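Example 9 (inverse folding). The structure is encoded as follows.
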């Protein structure tokens, strides 16, 4: 029922040429190795159309790193769900901690993005996760519960049942080389599933794919994937290196 997914968030890295080359080399690897996990890559917006074309005959799905909370209009620099769909993009990351930190995005606003994605038959990858001080003060469950609950409160359960991916990404583990232990990650993933179950029912919770993100690398992926509620990974830095990323993909059995 739950999908096994390994997703790469390329962030604001790679030139156009480098991004195309990485996508094509990844596709060659995927064709040769036929991994169990579904693979998603999220290049910068600017490259989405070309990489979608390059991967037309591939099993790799191309996602965007962000989407506007507005449907259309005078929102300079934003890209809407409809526009993304018009170039073949069907999945978008929303609520990444870098968007929350540098663009002050909040849960209700992130929920609007999810609504627009669903209106166009698209899927969100909703990122949630606590800061270091939240964990140190024992508030990590409260923080994550609020993030999940507010972002999902206005969504139609039928959409959630069909298409919901959540990524638990503790902010203190993103790009820092510090990973949550498999036990810490499992504990939070089970809590997120329970929170979704309380809010939208077990049939939604049991279908939700929950990815772990935060310094996942070729060395720690296997132990994380052994945890019952960890369905896959959202990978930042290590997704830029083909050998590291494909080792992580292979670890998702
Ligand atoms: C991310 O940005 O989603 C992420 C998990 O980054 P990293 O793997 O580099 O910690």
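The amino acid assigned to each position is listed next.
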């Amino acid at each position: 029922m739950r999908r096994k997914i390994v997703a790469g968030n390329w962030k604001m890295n790679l030139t156009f040429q480098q991004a195309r080359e990485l996508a094509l080399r990844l596709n060659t690897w995927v064709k040769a190795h036929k991994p169990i996990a579904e693979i998603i890559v999220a290049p910068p917006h600017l490259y989405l159309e070309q990489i979608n074309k390059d991967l037309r005959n591939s099993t790799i799905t191309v996602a965007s790193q962000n989407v506007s909370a507005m449907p259309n209009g005078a929102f300079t620099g934003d890209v809407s769900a409809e526009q993304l769909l018009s170039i073949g993009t069907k999945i978008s990351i929303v609520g990444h901690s870098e968007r929350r930190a540098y663009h002050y995005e909040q849960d209700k606003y992130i929920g609007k993005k999810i609504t627009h994605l669903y209106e166009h038959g698209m899927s969100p990858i909703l990122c949630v996760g606590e800061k270091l001080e939240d964990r140190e003060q024992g508030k990590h469950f409260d923080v994550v519960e609020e993030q999940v609950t507010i972002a999902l409160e206005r969504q139609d359960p039928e959409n959630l049942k069909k298409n919901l991916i959540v990524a638990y990404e503790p902010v203190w583990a993103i790009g820092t080389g510090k990973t949550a232990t498999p036990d810490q990650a499992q504990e939070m993933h089970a809590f997120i599933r329970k929170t979704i179950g309380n809010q939208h029912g077990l049939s939604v919770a049991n279908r939700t794919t929950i990815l772990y993100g935060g310094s996942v690398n070729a060395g720690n992926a296997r132990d994380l994937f052994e945890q019952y509620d960890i369905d896959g990974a959202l990978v930042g830095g290590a997704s830029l290196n083909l050998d590291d990323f494909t080792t992580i993909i292979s670890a998702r059995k």
